[in-house]
């Protein structure tokens, strides 16, 4: 495949550990004649942003998962 021409090391980080991913990486290595590195990805809790704040102030009504929210004018 012309995409891999001149590539010596192909790096493809992934969160997938399935047999399909391994076969895909092996295919790229064989067809491209290159080394393939496929490290796993991981994140620590501190790497994620903090949870979003509520959209309502404490004086307004809270929306719960079983609430019905209307968009528009109620007649």
Write the layout of secondary structure elements.
Elements: E1 9-11, H1 19-32, E2 35-37
Parallel strand pairs: 1-2
Protein name: Bifunctional nitrilase/nitrile hydratase NIT4A
InterPro entries: C-N_Hydrolase_sf, Nitrilases_CHs
GO molecular function, one term: catalytic activity
Q: How many structural domains are formed by the residues?
A: 1
What structural class do you assign from the helix and strand content? alpha+beta
Sketch the topology as an H/E string, one letter per element: EHE
Q: Major sheet: size, sense and barrel closure?
A: 2 strands, parallel
Number of distinct beta strands: 2
| Average predicted confidence as pLDDT | 77
Shape: elongated
Q: What proportion of the residues is helical, as a percent range?
A: 10-25%
How much of the sequence lies in strands comes to 5-15%
Number of helices: 1
GO molecular function, one term: catalytic activity
InterPro entries: C-N_Hydrolase_sf, Nitrilases_CHs
Protein name: Bifunctional nitrilase/nitrile hydratase NIT4A
């Amino acid at each position: 495949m012309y995409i891999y021409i001149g590539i010596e090391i192909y790096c493809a980080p992934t969160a997938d550990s399935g047999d399909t991913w391994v076969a895909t990486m092996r295919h790229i290595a064989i067809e491209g004649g290159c080394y393939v590195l496929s490290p796993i990805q991981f994140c620590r809790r501190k790497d994620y942003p903090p949870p979003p704040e509520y959209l309502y102030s404490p004086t307004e009504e809270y929306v719960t998962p079983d609430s019905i929210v209307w968009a528009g004018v109620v007649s």
